[in-house]
Give the backbone structure.
Amino acid sequence: MARTAIPGRLTKRAGWWVARLVERREETATACTLVLEVPDWPGHLPGQHVDLRLTAEDGYQAARSYSVSAPADGERIEVTVQRVPDGEVSPYLIEGLSVGDQIEVRGPVGGYFIWRMTEPAPVLLVGGGSGIAPLMAMIRARRAAGSRVPFRLIYSVRSERDIYFADELRRRVRDDQGLDVAYVYTREVPESSPARAHRIAVADLNTHGWPPQLEPTNFVCGPTGFVEAVSDILVALGHEPRRVKTERFGPTGA
Amino acid sequence: MSPGFQGRRRAAEPNLPPGQYLTEDFPVLSAGPTPRVSLTDWEFVLSTETGAESRWSWDEMWALPTETPMVDIHCVTHWSKLGTNWRGVSIDTLLDGVDTAADYALVHSYGGYTTNLPLDDLRDGQAWIVHQYDGADLPAEHGGPARLLVPHLYFWKSAKWVRGIRLGLTDEPGFWETAGYHDYGDPWREQRYQGD
């Protein structure tokens, strides 16, 4: 059973793997998770990403990088795709690709923005919008390994409707010991929430993060402006910059 | 292969390396928080394989002759941006008079980032230390106050927040190179990851 995760390195077998879509799950009105089966997949670490490649009939190809959103599970990998309006690849992944269709996959890639379950340090995950994807892989890997490493997630979304993995996050908070989740709503606050809609700020990170003295590992993933703001705050709060790992995306217009 | 996938139909773009798509804006990709470096503390150190050092303060660096390269840039994450405008000092200017037999350069940055290149790839008008983008000061998230610009290689080689270059007789992989990325990174040969 090939379940071995490669520690931050690509397999010697460079190049593209042919994968098949075996399942799709709607996450929000504009995002879905694709479950792909990749024969002989060597495994991956939570936080790594893959490149997906599409080929048109005339041979034209387009490739994009996506974080994996679930830990290694045999030959299955999951990516969670947000529909980019007017995008070239994501609309096809969400609407054009059917269960049973093939797609090419490359990876896993990236040896930095990863959580290793041998690390005892507490973990703060800060996600903005679809930036939750690699963080969810870490939360799920922690659960799968039965790890007791303390995890906190601060998740910034526009409204309750925009929460990815909403049901599962509720279950995880209930069932996984040592996992806390706090939400920051930027546009529309649920009636039950006392806070006003706001962009993530010092108070959110102070209240729901870890004190720097505990030397947590902070993983921040989201749009560029969000990651800039959060990582600046974490450093200002006294976190060692090396303990603030970031993954930024877009806007790239595609 | 992908039934019904059309892709974005556009005129053939001869300046676009394989596997790349054009973007109009300027994505930001870095592994950690943006370092903030004050110009009074900033310095650039070029050291050779014998340990000899040349140092430039911010004012000294920008008293040197500058050039205004207009170049295409290519990120390993598949975006390319054509015709970008920069201002900076050619590495040739910094190497002028430096006595070295080194074949390799290890570039290091404020914040701890490193990347490696053959020294020949920094010579002959191929690389600059730049402090302006599009006629304005280089924003911190794009590597300001100053970054390396080596447009003929994937953009992770163009180290942001550059602090110095160490010349050596042996190749020493940097941050992404030890994390599975290609040692050289030629976009035209799609040298993205180890083994390409």
